[in-house]
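TASK: fixed-backbone design
INPUT:
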């Protein structure tokens, strides 16, 4: 009798909902903490006037810390790796923001990019959480699109083509919109049960959207 009650569909559904809500809550709590930590790292980097490390060191550090985060995602060490990753990315972002702040209308550009990123993230997240729509069908497209955009971005490091650089930034903005929709729906629909990896994905989406918007707004201001 107890076994039949425990395994009833209603109870299983309730347990699934509670598990999903826990992952969602933990993800947004950790994401908020990492964003604040990243902002502090960026502010410290600007205050100390640290130089920009360059794209290759930034990419190398990012992929190394992402590997460690993935490896330890099921342990407490994973939390440490998440803060190391987001702190590092924040530190590399500091000199970029500092550069824009020294330009005419720089402060306005940074605030606009930050506001658009924040409003977009909140709006997309609220839409998915409210509708519980499943965006898993765009997973393959996102993977292919991000890979192509990344390779085109690498090309801009070797060839000074402003149009290509602008196209890459615009593509990343749209792809990050899709990534936020996809990752949030994965959490809501039980496709992602690890809040550490969910946090990393959403953080990178926010980071890339902000830097891409900053680049686009800077070009348009020029």
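OUTPUT:
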């Amino acid at each position: 009798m107890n076994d039949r009650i425990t395994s009833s569909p209603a109870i299983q559904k309730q347990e699934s909902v509670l598990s999903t809500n826990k992952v969602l809550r933990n993800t947004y709590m950790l994401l908020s903490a990492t964003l604040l930590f990243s902002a502090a790292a960026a502010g410290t980097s600007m205050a100390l006037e640290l130089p920009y490390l360059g794209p290759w060191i930034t990419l190398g550090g990012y992929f190394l810390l992402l590997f460690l985060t993935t490896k330890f995602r099921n342990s407490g060490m994973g939390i440490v790796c998440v803060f190391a990753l987001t702190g590092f990315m924040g530190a590399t972002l500091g000199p970029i923001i500092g550069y824009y702040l020294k330009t005419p209308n720089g402060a306005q550009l940074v605030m606009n990019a930050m506001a658009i990123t924040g409003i977009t993230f909140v709006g997309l997240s609220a839409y998915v959480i409210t509708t519980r729509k499943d965006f898993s069908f765009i997973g393959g497209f996102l993977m292919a699109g991000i890979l192509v955009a990344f390779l085109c971005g690498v090309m801009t490091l070797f060839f000074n083509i402003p149009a290509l650089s602008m196209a890459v930034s615009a593509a990343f903005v749209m792809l990050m919109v899709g990534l936020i929709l996809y990752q949030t729906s994965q959490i809501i629909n039980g496709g992602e049960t690890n809040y550490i990896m969910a946090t990393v994905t959403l953080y990178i989406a926010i980071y890339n959207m902000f830097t891409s918007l900053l680049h686009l707004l800077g070009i348009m201001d020029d």
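COMMENT: Helices lie at 2-6, 9-47, 55-71, 76-101, 106-131, 139-158, 162-188, 195-221.
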